[in-house]
Write a structure and sequence with these properties.
Prophage protein; 73% helix; mainly alpha; single chain; 3 helices; 0% strand; 59 residues
């Protein structure tokens, strides 16, 4: 049975997702339609989450 993720693992995965999405965003062109806006929207949602988790875990 898989155990739950630790706060540090969640923070790492958030940062990994941000890195992958940022790299993906930089490879997109105007031919990609709405995709760059959608990727940027997800990045906006993820922005600050890892830092917020770090602050909460330090309490």
């Amino acid at each position: 049975m898989k155990q739950g993720l630790s706060v540090s693992e969640v923070m790492c995965r958030i940062q990994q997702a941000q890195t992958v999405l940022t790299m993906w965003l930089h490879t997109m062109t105007t031919d990609d339609g709405e995709a760059p806006d959608m990727v940027d929207a997800v990045l906006t949602i993820l922005d600050g989450l890892a830092d917020a988790l770090a602050v909460e875990s330090d309490k």
